[in-house]
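I am writing to request your help with a piece of structural work I have in hand. Thank you for your consideration; the sequence and its tokens are set out here:
=====
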Amino acid sequence: MKQKYKIAIKINGKAVTHKFDSTIKDTNKKSLSITPNSASPVLKTQIVIALDADFPHTLLKTDFTVNATSTTNSTYVRYMNVIAVDDKAKKFTVKFGGAYSGKF
């Protein structure tokens, strides 16, 4: 979706106008699978997240942040490290470092 913007600001009493275009990708994809579908809260576990095979963007490790948030306490968040990316298979692997027992 392409949008046009116009910004007008005053700097030291002088009006400055700037026009620019912005393109927002309308891709909104969800993961197809998460393997394994559960993990021990006391063991470090590798988790593989698979995206749609037709995901249109190149997967880069630096583009991802992954976390698990408690379903009963949204302030309890466990961040996971992305340790591998497979762009051809449209999968990436994260390391779950453990958490309190519960649903995330």
Observations:
- The radius of gyration is 20 Å.
- The chain has no helices and seven strands.
